Amino acid sequence: MAAADSPSAALRRCDLCSRGIRLAGKMRSDVVDLLDAYVEQQGLDASVSVTAVEGVPTAAVERWDEQSGIQRLLENLAAYRAFRALLAQMLEEQREQLGEAHADAALGRALAAVLLQVSAFVYHLEELLQLESRGPPSEEGTGAPPSPHLTLFERKLRGLRVLQELAQWAVRSARDLRQLAKLGPGSSLAPSPAESP
Questions:
Q1: Could you report the per-residue pLDDT of 44-85, keeping only the tens digit for each?
Q2: C-beta neighbour count of 37 within 10 angstroms
Q3: Are 47 and 99 a contacting pair, CB within 8 Å?
Q4: First-to-final CA distance of the chain
């Protein structure tokens, strides 16, 4: 029996999934609050619809129910690594925009707090992948894409899109982790032969 299939590994997986669901819920709540503050502080309209922005992972997925547990974890990990880089970039831009004197403003603190939560969630996903005897992929190329010189307004819209998608990812992640937690002892997160490419 593989280590990932042992009863203790199944219990550990269930525990990690439960904690991850709670983390995702807390993160979503904080991101929604941050989104409200961001819209107000940046002078944006909350109902504005921002189309896809390069480098911002979208939570929507086709055939979600056909994905294996490993596919779900890997997609979540890639998305949160990208969000970590994007939030760090937003935080830096926020400091540049407001100056170091205002770097500790409420919006900056909230942005830094969400960045910490995203970093913790990345670590959590890596733990789940490690439990499945599959180490997380390297982080090469997971930083924020080099953005062309954006105007202040374009940066504001990109930031809005980052926060909107992060809130959606938190919902998807909780859903993915609930699905993973349903796997009983002796079942693996790896794709079945029919699911393998």
A1: 887 777 777 888 998 887 777 788 888 999 999 999 999 999
A2: 16
A3: no
A4: 24
Residue in this structure with the two tokens 């949160």, named with its chain if needed = 80
Instruction: Report the phi/psi class of residue 90: left, alpha or beta, with left for phi > 0 and alpha for psi in -120 to 50.
Output: alpha
Q: Are 98 and 108 in contact (CB under 8 A)?
A: yes
Long-range pairs for 48-53: beta carbons < 8 A, 24 or more residues apart: 48/157, 48/160, 50/157, 50/158, 50/160, 50/161, 50/164, 52/161, 53/157, 53/158, 53/161, 53/162
- Determine the Cα–Cα distance for residues 18 and 148; give it in Å rounded to an integer: 40
Amino acid at 80: Y
- With both helix axes pointing from N to C terminus, report the angle between 106-131 and 7-42 in degrees, rounded to the nearest 10: 160
Percent of the chain with pLDDT over 90: 47
* Cα(27)–Cα(33) distance, integer angstroms: 10
| pLDDT at position 101 | 54
